[in-house]
Amino acid sequence: MLKVCIFGGGAIGGYLAAHLARAGRCEVSVVARGKTLDAIREHGLRVTTAREAFTVPVRATSDTRELGAQDYVFITLKAHQVDAALEQIAPLIGPHTTVLPPTTGIPYYFFHAFPGRFDGSQLPALDRDGRQWRAIAPKQVLGCVYWIGAHASAPGVIVQDGAKAGCPVGELDGSDSPRVRALSELLCASGIDAKVNKDIRAAIWVKFVNSLAFNPVALLTQGTLGEMAEAGGVLPVVRAMMSEADGIAAQLGLTIGPAPDKRIALTVGASHHKMSMLQDLEARRPLELEPLSRSIRALRDLTDVATPVLDMVLAMAQLRAVTAAHAIKTQEQHA
């Protein structure tokens, strides 16, 4: 039986682990800590979707040495948390392990097996000293895009936002390999729509740009997706940000579709959903803005494409992140 580890017990990690554990087609484990670890151990994982609610026991630990090498490892941390977790992730990776790192920003392996002049390029701005490249060899990576709107209403309790959820997976070279087919079949059998995408890099780009545009705007407006859609003048800003980013993709040689208007319509369909960065702001957690900003800067520098709207919105969002961090620090000092 395949061994699958979910490294991170938050909303996305909990959603995946619960579905896989309920299906019983693989050995599932979750690496978590603190209250989340305690809740999973005591109560299991509880997931509520538009159609059902279920609770399932899942093996949970904070020590990856207990688990050993896995067949598949999903790293469901925030992008800015991965570097510090590499040592803990290491015991999970053997010579035949397949790893699925986060793709909120542009991942470190983006140009591995790239069909163009940037093939093999590393991005020092995104992967300091090539640490992730060395720790998780790109040849052991599958691309995965999480189109799962969800939030943790309490430790170990996951609520899906919106009726649809999926996570396409794919090889960076577009091949239909045994490992990607096996994972796709496993996830689909568990109730998670995970079709094999033969252009997963383009899919990663679309999700990255979606986060790049919607998250900073959510941070500034503090609105749900539905509230953003109803407010005049907000979605045109999102559209301009997406269009600028897609201009960079064109220079890289990526073919991106669908058009921004269709992507925006699909996103705001989950009208009650709050973007992850707004959830983090309200929960007083660190904001995942810097990986997005660094990603677009790194690729803009490669292509020399101007991004005036992106630059403006990201500058304001960065200030909002700084003031939020300052407020949290002040409250803690006076607590």
From TrEMBL:
Tell me if Transcription is a UniProt keyword of this record: no
Give the UniProt keywords, A-Z: NADP, Oxidoreductase, Pantothenate biosynthesis
Query: What Gene Ontology cellular-component terms does the record carry?
Result: cytoplasm
Would you say which domain of life the source belongs to?
Bacteria
Tell me which residues make up the Ketopantoate reductase C-terminal domain: 199-318
Q: Which reaction does it catalyse?
A: (R)-pantoate + NADP(+) = 2-dehydropantoate + NADPH + H(+)
Q: Which InterPro entries match?
A: 6-PGluconate_DH-like_C_sf (IPR008927), 6PGD_dom2 (IPR013328), KPA_reductase (IPR013752), KPR-Related (IPR051402), KPR_N (IPR013332), NAD(P)-bd_dom_sf (IPR036291)
Please state every residue range assigned to the domain named Ketopantoate reductase N-terminal.
4-101
EC number(s) for this protein? Answer: 1.1.1.169
Pathway note: Cofactor biosynthesis; (R)-pantothenate biosynthesis; (R)-pantoate from 3-methyl-2-oxobutanoate: step 2/2
Q: One biological process GO term for this chain?
A: pantothenate biosynthetic process
Query: A single Gene Ontology molecular function, please?
Result: 2-dehydropantoate 2-reductase activity
Please give the family membership noted in the entry. Belongs to the ketopantoate reductase family.
What function does the entry list? Answer: Catalyzes the NADPH-dependent reduction of ketopantoate into pantoic acid.
Q: What is this protein called?
A: 2-dehydropantoate 2-reductase
Annotated organism of origin: Caballeronia arvi
Q: What is the lineage of its organism?
A: Bacteria, Pseudomonadati, Pseudomonadota, Betaproteobacteria, Burkholderiales
